[in-house]
Amino acid sequence: MLGSKGRALERAEGLAGVMLVYIDTGALIALNDRSDPNHAAAEVYFHEAARTGTRFVIGRPVCVEYLDGVTKRVGKADAITRMRQIDASSLWRVEPDLEEDHARGRELFIQYDDAAIDMTDSLSFAIMERLGLDCAFTFDSDYQTHGLTGVPSRDRVRRRRR
Predict the structure, then answer these.
(1) Average pLDDT rounded to a whole number, residues 65-87
(2) Which residues pair with 20 in a beta bridge?
(3) Which string of DSSP letters, residue by residue, matches 87-105?
(4) Which tens digits make up the pLDDT trace of 127-148?
(5) Which residues are CB-contacts of 4 (< 8 A; sequence separation ≥ 6)?
(6) SS3 letters across 38-77
(7) Which fold has domain 4-156?
(8) CB distance 138 to 45 below 8 Å
(9) In 3-state terms, what secondary structure has residue 13?
(10) CA neighbor of 144 nearest in space, from 159, 129, 125
(11) Could you tell me the pTM of the whole model?
(12) 64, 71 in Cβ contact below 8 A?
């Protein structure tokens, strides 16, 4: 998924503008795991978005969470391959988390004390706020709880599953 197909998309010509979308761990998993129930929707959205000029931001906490999951569930060699693919693609960039993101992330983590929003999502919200992003490639409703737009829309995902 992340390799040669991505390179062809990177060379797409005539893009009117670039839209930045934050990418969540669940979307990375769905995009790369054919057994994931959201795989088809993730693949369709990703290719369509990339073709029309969308580029993605992966917060460093999301990248760590994703690569840790691949290491534990699939194996270290596969995690290394995926890390290299992430580093090599111009379809996305890994955004470092700053101390101010951690301070804001902690505030958000406490703010959502009645919800199952974890620290990685809280840090992601803080990074998105800092970057001025309001749209996330996710299948996680926590982003909508925080007032952000999740893509692909839940309606589109349900229609594809039928």
Answers:
(1) 97
(2) 55
(3) HH-SSEEEEPPPHHHHHHH
(4) 999 999 999 999 999 999 999 9
(5) none
(6) CHHHHHHHHHHHHHCCEEEEEEHHHHHHHHHHHHHHCCHH
(7) Rossmann fold (3.40.50)
(8) no
(9) coil
(10) 125
(11) 0.84
(12) no
